[in-house]
Specification:
Helices cover 45% and strands 17% of the residues. The two termini are 46 Å apart. Helix 1 (3-24) runs antiparallel to helix 3 and helix 1 (3-24) packs parallel to helix 4 (58-81). Strands 2-1-3-4 form a four-stranded antiparallel sheet. By secondary structure, the protein is of the alpha+beta class.
């Protein structure tokens, strides 16, 4: 099999997967359910095996990817249209800890032992089962945890502090490149940017690794390390 043929088939397979991923949406990337995970694996295998099979041509690769994509789309459409099918095709989350008590039946149903449960909890910064009020095993295998009140982080309400509004940060300069769209969306112009650079003794935007602006905290910046 020639290098040119492999290159062409790789490019076609890459573009086909790219288009299909965009069309199917982000769930195929995050693999929210076991079905999403399996479909992603099969999709990759279809292209991978087809590329190195001498009897498979480009049209076969495109057909296989499109057919699999249509099947996935149909399943996703069914689960959105008919709620009753979601438990079969997507699965249901399981409450493995309820009111601080481990539900052994749910652990067995989901083929999960205590050590695995503790491992999942540690990934949520929970290092003792005594801290957990509720724990839910999600359909993608991750776990969501609600701690007991004694182990929860205090909030502003606990201290009778007035809550503040949160703001998203905006990258004005990244890797030495000015994002003019972000600059204007933030309500600023080139004159403001030059003023900021001058205040921080920066000669050129290319000298900055990042310049970030946030409404409540102002400007954060870091120079590119020349060493």
């Amino acid at each position: 099999m020639g290098i040119g043929s492999i290159t062409l088939e790789l490019l076609v397979g890459f573009l086909a997967l790219l288009v299909l991923t965009k069309a199917l949406g982000k769930t195929q990337i995050t693999q929210i359910t076991p079905f999403d995970f399996i479909s992603s694996l099969v999709l990759g295998e279809l292209v991978g095996n087809a590329i190195y099979d001498k009897e498979v041509n480009i049209l076969s690769i495109i057909y296989a990817v499109l057919l699999w994509g249509v099947l996935i789309y149909i399943v996703e459409w069914i689960t959105q249209k008919f709620r009753s099918t979601r438990s079969i095709l997507e699965g249901n989350p399981s409450i493995v800890i309820s009111h601080g008590k481990i539900n052994r039946r749910q652990l067995q149903k989901n083929k999960l032992d205590i050590n695995q449960l503790q491992n999942l909890l540690r990934q949520k910064d929970v290092f003792s089962l005594r801290e957990v009020e509720f724990a839910i095993l999600e359909t993608n295998g991750s776990i969501s945890v609600l701690k007991k009140s004694d182990y929860q982080q205090p909030t502003k309400q606990d201290f009778d502090l007035k809550p503040k509004q949160g703001y998203l940060s905006v990258d004005i300069i990244s890797d030495g490149k000015i994002d003019w769209g972000n600059l204007h969306d933030a309500g600023f112009n080139e004159e403001w940017l030059n003023k900021i650079l001058k205040e921080h003794h920066i000669d050129h935007a290319e000298d900055l690794l990042i310049l970030e602006w946030q409404q409540d905290t102002g400007v954060f910046l870091q120079k590119i390390d020349k060493d």
